[in-house]
Amino acid sequence: MRSGYWVVAIFATGWASAGLLVTGYPLVTVLLPVLISAALLLWAHTTPSTRTELGSHTRRLLARWSLLEGLAIFIAVNLLHRTHHPDATFSVVAAIVGLHFLPLARQIPVHLYYLTAAGLVLCGAAGMLLPTGERPLAVGLSAAGVLWATAVLRLSGARRLVTT
């Protein structure tokens, strides 16, 4: 399922880039997350696939939970802005993204996604303990790190399956 690596790479790059840019880092710093994701995609491309294409059940499952995740994020961001707490956006969105991995972990099943879920929820919770100005960078980089680590662990597992 190479498309999964694209999704992880894009969102990890997005998290890291958003954290960097919102806190005032220059645009050129976005190159580092792009390079990290590109390296993971190259690794995914060179790793022989251990799975066939996604079945229609799995595609529907991913679509359903992603739609629910998007809706939850939309509602949460609007509520945070209406209640004058936009500074919590990065933390709350990270937690929602993390929670969306729980049903995927169980229903696909990819047990590593339980750790991904826990890591992202922890990123969001820990971000709330930080001063407002530090949240975007800390949550953005840590969420990206969790997603990149998920990709590395999945790729390492796939490589071991192929070589044994």
Structure description:
By secondary structure, the chain is mainly alpha-helical. 79% of the residues lie in helices and 0% in strands. Helix 1 (2-22) packs antiparallel against helix 2 (31-46), helix 3 (56-82) packs antiparallel against helix 4 (89-107) and helix 5 (112-128) packs antiparallel against helix 6. The model has no long low-confidence stretch (mean pLDDT 92).
Outline the fold blueprint.
Elements: H1 2-22, H2 31-46, H3 56-82, H4 89-107, H5 112-128, H6 135-163
Structural class, from helix and strand content? mainly alpha
Counting DSSP E segments of at least 2 residues, the number of strands comes to 0
- Determine the number of helices (DSSP H or I, runs of at least 4 residues): 6
Basic shape: globular
Query: From the alpha-carbon coordinates, what is the Rg to the nearest angstrom?
Result: 16 Å
Largest sheet: none
Distance between the termini: 20 Å
What is the arithmetic mean of pLDDT?
92
List the secondary-structure elements in sequence, H or E: HHHHHH
What share of residues are in beta strands?
under 5%
Task: Assign a percent range to the helix content.
Answer: over 70%
Unreliably modeled segments = none
Brief overview, please?
With 164 residues, the protein is mainly α. It has six helices and no strands.
Quickly list its features.
164 residues, 6 helices, mainly alpha
